[in-house]
Amino acid sequence: MTIDLYYWPTPNGWKISIMLEETETPYNLIPVNITAGDQFQPEYLKISPNNKMPAIVDPNGPNGNPISIFESGAILLYLAEKTSRFIPDNPSDRYTVIQWLMFQMGGLGPMLGQADHFRQYAPEKIPYAIERYTNEASRLYGVLNQQLSQVEYVAGDYSIADMAIYPWIVPHEKQGQNLSDFPHLKRWFETISQRPTVSRGLAVLSESRTKKFDEKARENLFGTRQFQQ
To answer: Which intervals hold domain GST C-terminal (predicted)?
Structure first.
C-alpha cells in the first residue's frame, strides 16, 4: 500500500524522498508549502503536532494498522525497519548507524541550519552569530571528515545515516564551508551525489524551492505563529 509523504524540498524533506527512492517504496506526494503556512493547517497538525515537515502516513503499519510518523530521523528508522534495508541487523553495527543518525538530528542539522539562517536569512547581520555558527559548522564538518578518513560511508556501509547527513551538506556554500578543506568528506559527498536514487530524491518538487521570501513567508518560516495555535 502507498505511503503518504508530507513533504517540501528542504534537507529534512530530502532525507525521506531519498530513502523512499532508495527502497523503491511507493509513495503519494502531498506538498506542505512551508512558506505558505501549510504546516499550520489543523489536519496537518494532527499528523505533525510540532508543525514541521516531513511526515508520513503508512496505511499498512505495524500489525497492518495505519500509523503516522513525524520527525525525519524517526521516519528513516521506521522505513529502514519496514523494508529491512540500510540498517544492519547486527546490534553493534546497528547502533553505529543510530548514533550517527542522532549526530545529525541533535547537532549537525540544527547547527548547520543556524549557520544558514544567520548568514542568509536573518533580517540583520549579527557578526557574533554568523561567526559562532559558521565556526561550529566547520567543526562538525571536521568530525565527519575524520570519520570518513577511516570508512567509506559514515557508519561503514551506506545507510540511513548517510541519507540523513548528505542533504545537510548539499548547501555547504550557504553555511560558509568549502568542501575542498575536507577532502574525505568531499570524496563521500561526490560518491553519494552520483547515486541515481539520490538524484531522484533531490528532484522531488525541486522547481518549488524559493530563493527569496516575502514578509508572509518569513513569518511562516521564522516567526512565532506556532505559539499562537
So the answer is: 90-212
CATH 1.20.910.10 matches 91-194: no
Share of the chain above pLDDT 70, in %: 96
In angstroms, what CA-CA distances link 209 with 20, 141, 174, 177? 20, 25, 15, 21
For residue 38, count other CB atoms closer than 10 A to its CB: 18
User: CA-CA distance, 203 to 136, in Å (whole number)?
Assistant: 29
| Span 125-184, pLDDT tens digits | 999 999 999 999 999 999 999 999 999 999 999 999 999 999 999 999 999 999 999 999
Radius of gyration for the alpha carbons in the chain, expressed in angstroms and rounded:
18
Task: Rounding to the nearest 10 degrees, give the CA dihedral for residues 115, 206, 83, 55.
Answer: 70
pTM above 0.85, yes or no: yes
What pLDDT shows up at residue 6?
98
Judge whether 3-85 and 91-194 match in fold. no
CATH number of 3-85: 3.40.30.10
> Domain extents for the chain?
3-85, 91-194
